[in-house]
Amino acid sequence: MGAIMRREINSYFTSAVGYIFMAVFFLLSGLYFSNYFSAGVADMSYLFSAMFTITMFMIPVLTMRLMSEDKKNKTDQALLTAPVSLGGVVFGKFFAACLMFLITISITLVEGIAVAVVAELNWSLIFSNFSGLYLAGCAMISIGMFISSLTENQVIAAVGAFAAALAMSFLDSIIPNINNAFLKKVAVGASFTSRYKEFYRGILDVSNLIFFISIMAIFVFLTIRTLEKKRWS
Question: What is the pLDDT along the chain (233 residues), one digit of tens a residue?
């Protein structure tokens, strides 16, 4: 798993993918940060809220090539027959993307330090927002990775992950129109936005932690199953 993870991390920086993802995130985060800072707003929750929405639609850039590239280059057979478990392959790729994501969003903590120089910050609130952003991002990475395992076309993988992000992010907007009480409860429970709002308020609810971790576990498992099906086909 460690070798797979190192290979994937290196691939982010030997191609344009990693640089593009970081550059876009840094640029947008910097713009939002400068707007709030110049307005005299010391509450960084607004920044995290904006970056949460943006992150959901940027994740496909990280995940579109995780599995599809191996299929396209016909190197997936080497991975499937390598002396490493399929779980090791999938987890190596997943952890690499999550580490890349963690490195990128850490810029928000640097911005927090910059604010703390001139104003008092609620660091517990920042930690809560940062944790929510990271967990939601990792959950979205697992979904994007699964979609990537279904195709060898990176564009299709990116579009599929983008559609999933769109559904997860805007599920809240259709909840008021759901008349069935059970379906409404399911929709509220499955909404990434609703779950993140708790972190935004500084509430570290165990149920929300379990939700995002469960999403990761489910889609990592589905990705492994997809590779197993290909191994025996």
Answer: 788 888 889 988 888 888 999 999 999 998 888 887 776 666 788 888 889 988 888 999 999 988 887 676 666 665 666 666 788 889 999 999 999 999 999 999 998 888 888 778 888 889 999 999 999 999 999 999 999 999 888 899 999 999 998 887 777 777 777 787 778 777 777 888 888 988 988 888 899 999 999 999 999 999 999 888 776 65
Question: How would you write the chain as a 3-class SS string?
Answer: CHHHHHHHHHHHHHCHHHHHHHHHHHHHHHHHHHHHHHCCCCCCHHHHHHHHHHHHHHHHHHHCCCCHHHHHCCCHHHHHHCCCCHHHHHHHHHHHHHHHHHHHHCHHHHHHHHHHCCCCCCHHHHHHHHHHHHHHHHHHHHHHHHHHCCCCCHHHHHHHHHHHHHHHHCHHHHHHHCCCHHHHHHHHHHCHHHHHHHHHCCCCCHHHHHHHHHHHHHHHHHHHHHHHHHHHC
pTM for the model stands at 0.90
Domain ranges of the chain: 2-232
